[in-house]
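Hi D.,

Good news: the full-assembly prediction came through. Inputs first.
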Amino acid sequence: MMSVGALAGLSLGSISCSQVEVEDFLQKHFREMSAEEKKQVIKRLEAKYLKKYGKKFNISTQEPEAGILWGYGLDIARCIGCRKCVYGCVNENNQSRKNPQLQWIRVVRQKKGSMINLENAEHYYNPETVPEPGYQYTPVQCQHCENPPCVRVCPVKATWKEPDGIVVVDYNWCIGCRYCIAACPYKGRVFNWAEPNIPVAELNTEVHYLGNRPRMKNVVEKCTFCIQRVRQGRYPACVEACPTGTRKFGNLLDPTSEIRYLIENKRTLRLKEDLNTESKFYYFFSA
Amino acid sequence: MRKILLWLSLMATGMVIGVAAPVLAANQHQEYAVGSPPFTEGIFPCSNCHAGLEVNAKRRELKDEHTTIKLHHAEQERWCLDCHNAANRDKLKLADGESIDFTESYRLCGQCHGNIYKDWKAGVHGKRVGYFKGGKRTYFLCVNCHNPHDPKFKPIKPLPPPIRPELNNGR
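Then the structure:
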């Protein structure tokens, strides 16, 4: 499967185009599709995935619910830097495993006492065991800003903020310019420099159109708070993968939610607050 | 005199309510859908072996059974039967003597770790999985993550670091 941009380039070189490729090329922006058009697109995509992977995919276009604004909580005092969230996310969200290897969560190791100075932080640490004495760990992923710089710079509006606060990408509309990657202050986005590479046996076939469906070469991807799970009321995969209960998730508009409890009762911070991104990813200290 | 009687009866009512409230609170504990306690295979029910054994509350080295348990959890202050119920071996017991199931062990832990218990009930300490909408989420018990006899987390091996970009272009 190719992105619109790649296909446009290709069509200049070779005139022959299959029916599916033509339909791909003429596909509308997701937000401009009618319910019927969405159904057609999903049908075509499912047929395409079946042919490509030999697996039946279930592609959801589930809409956001009113009265929900998702927020995330991460307990800095508890993270031990084990990266279980990273691989839980990779498996759930069909990220390319190698050549290229894409990951939506980056666990940053910092020297104790160097919380703010990220110049001395690193994410390639690989000791025998974690946590290591003298270090602390801060996982970073898309912060789902209320004021997302990545959305503002996209020249084709292929990325936007959903009404429930999730920042999503329409992979079929992305032209691969990577302006959003340059604009994101959190390194929350990654790029498919090559055709994604996922063992068929490891594919997750329960997907959302705006989330974990298999991507193609030349498009940007990022954390979606597991849109395919949270819109069904399930916790994101990283929350369930964490062995220390570091990760919390909930509805910022619900006063009884876990996320509201921790914001009201704990000390919290958001990364790079001074940039006015209004991130919805709250780091907190449990003790 | 009648005034005093009235006052006394009011007091008595108040006391009844006062007694009733903790009972209600105790029932509220039932609302947490918890996983199963991490028993070693074949070890439960404890009464299978303990029914015929004499109760020995003395602090000692356990040589015949439970030899892998090394108590490292305020071991100077407590011994087995401070938490395990000698009167009913298949239950735990609270400090006030109340007998509770192993699935309610968080109440036992909460006796000392009050702040953590409060956070756990709110869903901010510990781990929950499943559907947070519709009440189908499962609370992990304290003991699902912490060994009650040795609760401190042990270091673990991290999963592999990401591949450096110069080796990861895929081109």
